[in-house]
Design brief:
Low-confidence stretches: 316-325
Number of helices: 11
CATH superfamily: Divalent-metal-dependent TIM barrel enzymes
Mean pLDDT: 94
Number of domains: 1
Oligomer: single chain
Number of strands: 10
Shape: globular
CATH topology: TIM Barrel
Order of helices and strands: EHEHEHEHHEHEHHEEEHEHH
Structural class: alpha/beta
Distance between the termini: 24 Å
Helix content: 25-40%
Amino acid sequence: MALDADTWPIAAAMLPYPAVLADGRVVQEQPASHWLETLREVADAGFSHVDITDSWLRVGDLPPQRLAELAAALAAAALTVPAVSTARRSVIDPKHGADNLAYCHRVIDAASALGATVVSVGLFQALTAAQQSVLWFWTAPGASDPDDPEIWDTAVQRFRELGSHADAVGLQLSLEMYEDTYLGTADSAVRLVTDINHPAVGLNPDLGNILRLQRPIEAWQSMLDKTLPFANYWHVKNYFRSEDPATGAVFTTPAPLELGFMNYRAAISQAVRGGYSGAFCAEHYGGDGLGVAARNRDYLRGLLRQYLGDGAMVPTREASARSNA
């Protein structure tokens, strides 16, 4: 189906919603009626699409009956699921890599059952104690991937395995960029997806994960130029960024798309004109994350109207395969 500015999937991320509620209730164990309440809140914010981010609900760990209940809740809220994103489930985690690989396989099957077309995975690991103790977790050091060819090869093999599984059930696998991992720079991310060399595996150029770092970074335009040809899904978020050349100090904080450091008007224009046809996922940390995501969605639709004009984009798996060739 051809996509125009009004039908292009722009999903709400479930990042604003915790996995454990303030009263101690675990979302994973809630009745579906409680899931529906949350999903209706997303729909009431004007969304027709949602990414069931596993920081809220782990679809890969739902038994078939509960997965069917989730599907019914989504239908009742009039929401579709273009993608499911995993968080902090690195397949090369030193302790949990094999378990995370098995989990990602379950997520792929669950995402297929929910009608998704993409599963987003990454190499970022659990937050450290230092990251959990600060206001913004990215201001404290986290785990990093080693400079080890054998572990790099393990990442290649395991992502290729997941890509083959995704392909078999009609999905794409998208690798999310994240600092200090093998997907932590544009050059390394492109090298990794090129080494994987699978038509169902592309990049999620979540440059916001890099823009927020309080240290020197590559120019966002350079990162976009390198990664966009491989993109098949896109978490979009922005940050205010201030650099003091006298001291080298860098300060960052979340921002709406049109107000932050990265020029998303230029980025979306480049993406559309370059043939990008994947879904977007609107993310935001802090404050009313859902409200800012809705604002970002409307901003994106305005840009799509401008750059698509009277035309439309026809998303195809073949286009994604060519971008990864």
